[in-house]
Amino acid sequence: AVEVRSEKPGPIAPYLDVSSVVAAAKQTGADAVHPGYGFLSESEAFAAACEENGIRFIGPKAETIALLGDKVRARELAERSGVPILRGS
To answer: Model pTM?
Structure first.
C-alpha cells in the first residue's frame, strides 16, 4: 500500500488530488487505475492524466466524461443519435 498525500486541506483531499494519485500509481508500477464511484471516476482531468502517464484508466475516455458531464452537450448527442428524450428534461 502507498499513502497518498496532498497539500490541500481536508480528509479526502488526497483522494481528489489527481497528481498525487497518479504519482502513487507510478510509484507502485501500476499499469491501470480503477477510480471507484464518484469523485475521480467523473473527473476528465484524472482520466486524461492517467492516459498522459501511460496508466490505463478503467472507465470512459476523458473526452466521453467531458461530453456526458455537460447536460446540454449530452442531450444534443442523444438527440443526434436518435435516443428518445422527454421534453423539458
So the answer is: 0.83
Give the number of other Cβ atoms within 10 Å of residue 43's Cβ. 21
Burial of 25 (0-12, 13-18, 19+ CB in 10 A): buried
Q: How far apart are CA 55 and CA 68, in angstroms?
A: 22
- Structure confidence by residue, pLDDT tens digits, 35-59: 998 889 999 999 999 999 999 999 9
Q: Which runs of consecutive H residues, i.e. helices, occur in 1-89?
A: 13-16, 18-28, 44-52, 62-69, 71-80
Rounded-to-integer distance, Cα 24 and Cα 15, Å: 11
